[in-house]
Amino acid sequence: MGIQGMELCAVAVVILLFIAVLKQFGILEPISVEDGGDGDFELSAVRHQPEGLEQLQAQTKFTKKELQSLYRGFKTECPSGLVDEETFKLIYSQFFPQGDATTYAHFLFNAFDVDGNGAICFQDFVVGLSVLLRGTVHEKLNWAFNLYDINKDGYITKEEMLEIMKSIYDMMGRCTYPILKDNAPAEHVEMFFQKMDRNRDGVVTFEEFVETCQKDENIMSSMQIFENTI
């Protein structure tokens, strides 16, 4: 896999890898006619109960049928109704045996665990997925910015971006071609900041991030790929 341009394409990588894993685990399955009906969420076997169907419809851009289908997949893979970070990391490790997905999975887990309680519930899952699959470009970029802004102070620093880039390279492992130099992540961070840090103050604001991404055709195309995934 080539790495050229990853300092911007990482926005799409976040979404692609997450959705690929969900499909492999059967959580994102095509919705069939049988998925209809007026049945509820079947909560009896689940220890952590999600928010009501109507509330989740209001919070997301999924239909009732889609939410029911997503919940069945989520409940099958997560009978307790919660996914902790170690389980999340284990899932990612299975799909990237050639590398180390631990750090990347940690960052992605934190992006979904919006309340910071150490677990992803169904509500966290569908709200985040709704943004990635059905959100506006601005909403998707806001989600990606939040992933990169590790300490949530409203800025992306070089140190934060370097951690993200290293985690992606570590995860891809031997899949990268040509073979990466040791300083490749740092070089890509510098390229990222040359494009994003418009006022050269050493940090990237959300406004700078959005403005640059919206002018990049590859990123804008990637934002449209995922809209009809389920």
UniProtKB/TrEMBL annotation:
The keyword Lipid biosynthesis does not apply. It comes from the Eukaryota. The keyword Ribosomal protein does not apply. Keywords: Calcium, Metal-binding, Repeat. PROSITE patterns: EF_HAND_1, EF_HAND_2. Residues 100-135, 136-171, 184-219 form the EF-hand domain. Coiled coil: none annotated. This is Calsenilin isoform X8. It comes from Apteryx mantelli. The gene is KCNIP3.
